[in-house]
């Protein structure tokens, strides 16, 4: 009697698994041998470069497109269906790196427009089981910066070639909205650079905030390298990104409806005036500024908003 009950239980579980695989995972995979074909062109992945919120819709349109259907059908696979129309499927490329840096460069260049995140992986041991040196060497340069704080190449040569203070501020001119508007006032006091000292190395937070380490010697460890970085705050290509930044401010008053008005934002950005009308925040207009990162000048069709906010759109791609 028990054996029959056990058999029924196993049969029931097997049937349930069959239903689950059939009803809920019809497109999970397709077995067998498949091969990349060159007879069908690669569909455009323009949605990867699109900005939100348009990006989510373009991503959904891509899955529903005939080009995507034909491409996957040619490879004997079915089209992946995200759980929701706006749920973007991302690609993480995990790369094992040893010493073939030339192939790493080729790989990054080849897959740049198709991968969301590149993650490099390095084993702590060689194939023979020998330990690898995983840490930087003592004296190696370390920079802690926001993404919009771009060191000048000459700055990196100075750091590579010279002895410098343990807490070095890479000061910069402070541009706002674009490299067309220079903030009146002192230089921007970031990012920071230090050098590797093993366990004595300053943490990124301590380096950025100017604390940590031994209090009595802290002031003697500091130095400033002027005009070392390009920095532009709130240099956004879309008004949606500007609004998102406002929403993230810790000061609630800066996120009032009156400051989220799109016309008001565009007028402030176009004219180089402070959105919140603060007396301390004024800017000097610099037209045709060429002291910018080289790529900004090389690709004006992509980065024109970084050098000019003139015109009805104020350089935003989603306004008016």
Automatic annotation (TrEMBL):
This is Glycosyltransferase family 17. It holds the Pfam family Glyco_transf_17. It comes from Beauveria bassiana (strain ARSEF 2860) (White muscardine disease fungus). Keywords: Transferase. GO terms for cellular component: membrane. GO terms for molecular function: beta-1,4-mannosylglycoprotein 4-beta-N-acetylglucosaminyltransferase activity. InterPro entries: Glyco_trans_17. One of its GO terms (biological process) is N-acetylglucosamine metabolic process.
